[in-house]
Amino acid sequence: MPFPSPTPAPRRRVAVVGTGAIVTGSHLPALAALSGRAELVAAVDVDAERLDAFRAKAAEAGFPDVTAHTGLTAMLEEARPDLVLIGTPPVFHREQTVAALKAGAWVLCEKPLTLSLAEYDEIAAAEEASGAYASVVFQHRYGSGAVHARELLGAGTLGRPLVAHCQTTWYRDAGYYEVPWRGRWATEGGGPVMGHGIHQFDLMLHLLGEWTEIRAMAARLVHDTESEDVSTALVRFASGALATVVNSVLSPDETSRVRVDCEKATVELTHLYGHTNDDWRYTPAPGAPEPPAPTADVPSSHTAQLTALLDAYDAGTRPPGSGEDARGTLEFAAALYKAAFTGNPVRAGEIGPGDPFYTAMHGDHPDWSPKR
């Protein structure tokens, strides 16, 4: 007698909070690509005109019955989503994530998930109380090129990692900072460390694992902002590998780059805002074999990360990019700021309650805090 086929997982009810460019341009296509597993049922925005425009685009994408809400609380009570996608400015992330978790919904939130480690720990407490989970959007981890590189490094195929470079050299003009919440500690959490380079150094940490020490510098060279517009760092990893990290919004020749020199090969990713397998290059050491190629070609994208999150939801397990995993990336950002602003090396794990860099990325430093 044949065994019955497993019951397919139901479509998950999804709501979006914020209907601006990131939700319309990235989250909505991801939902459309995964419409067999997820149904967009509600959208929240304080701008009624923008909300109406989004609902029209959602209907074109195959979701004709998206309800409109101008408040998160009412939406959570009325729509009762399984999953909430948050694409609002960073200042709202903690409050909105905690509210969704308390309502029993899982969360996928744009970076940074919070403006400080203290705020992140509030989300961790809300997770524990609700049993739901919150993930942060770090989509570069989920392309097949990144998955393959991590597997090769983890298996020792490339040998021991020795030297790494992590580069986010982008360009933002003065008009970019005319948006009121940008460049301010209280609303964005920081400069290119938090808003731009975080994607690349998250991938570096994902590939290389635990770090032990960081030394750094930061400056405001061009823009009249509270936060920095460029930073550089030196990092030591638990494996012994050393890395350089550059985060800039001053670079007309824009590129995103992660390179790891190992005993048997160099692996390098060069792209801008997303990667495919073609953006990865392996150079074997003299006499070493060519590393194997990946068997799949999945671009890094919100679709790839949402797929992984829905897999975890169906399995009832913690999703990737959440919990201590995501906290580690935020801790790295806080440590980079502390090292840059104090001029002292920072060890992993040293920033906790009582440390000024635990509650704010500027650490209330006299040269960098909003009160300067």
General description of the model:
By secondary structure, the chain is of the alpha/beta class. The protein has two domains: 128 residues, NAD(P)-binding Rossmann-like Domain (Rossmann fold); 187 residues, Dihydrodipicolinate Reductase, domain 2, CATH 3.30.360.10. It is 34% helix and 24% strand. It contains twelve helices and 14 strands. α1 crosses α10 and α4 packs parallel to α5. It starts with 11 loop residues before the first strand and ends in a 13-residue tail after the last helix.
Taken in chain order, the helices and strands follow as EHEHEHEHEHEHEHHHEEEEEEHHEH
CATH-defined topology of the largest domain? Dihydrodipicolinate Reductase, domain 2
- Supply the number of structural domains: 2
Mean pLDDT: 96
CATH superfamily of the largest domain: Dihydrodipicolinate Reductase, domain 2
List the helices and strands and how they pair.
Elements: E1 12-17, H1 21-33, E2 38-44, H2 48-60, E3 67-69, H3 72-79, E4 83-86, H4 93-102, E5 106-109, H5 117-130, E6 134-136, H6 144-155, E7 161-171, H7 185-188, H8 192-195, H9 198-208, E8 211-219, E9 230-237, E10 242-248, E11 250-262, E12 265-271, E13 280-284, H10 302-315, H11 323-342, E14 346-347, H12 356-359
Parallel strand pairs: 1-2, 1-4, 2-3, 4-5, 5-6, 7-10
Antiparallel strand pairs: 7-11, 8-9, 8-14, 9-10, 11-12, 12-13
Helix pairs in contact: 1-10, 4-5, 6-9
